[in-house]
Design a protein that fits this description.
The structure is a single chain. By secondary structure, the protein is mainly beta. It has a domain of 68 residues. The chain contains one helix and six strands. It has a six-stranded mixed β-sheet with strand order 1-2-3-4-5-6, with helices on one face.
């Protein structure tokens, strides 16, 4: 099905890549490095599929457990689906993180 995305962890372990399935094609998603500058993170990613692609993901201020990784994978899938031959991308996640307002 075109446009369909999913993810799969192949095995348990620190170095285990995630496999993304985008439009019927498998892409191995591997983090190759993380740089911290102040409160910001720059995560280097390699995507191995029909081609080898790279991404730099910018996460501003903080990581939200259970949310940040899913956002990164969702954005990588969206880029793979939309790319038109590009092999490198910069993904900005800064706008996706907002702490909920305190009650009352």
């Amino acid at each position: 099905m075109t446009g369909m995305t999913s993810l799969q962890v192949n095995a348990i372990g620190d170095q285990t890549p995630v496999t993304l399935h985008v439009a019927g094609e498998a892409w191995r998603f591997s983090i190759t490095g993380v740089s911290r500058i102040g409160r910001e993170l720059f995560i280097s990613v390699v995507l191995h599929g029909a081609e080898v692609c790279t991404a730099v993901v910018h996460v501003r201020d903080h990581i939200v457990l259970g949310v940040t990784a899913k956002d990164i994978l969702d954005r990588a899938c969206a880029w793979l689906l939309a790319r038109q031959g590009e092999r490198h991308v910069y993904i900005e996640l800064a706008e996706t993180f907002a702490w909920p307002a305190p009650p009352g």
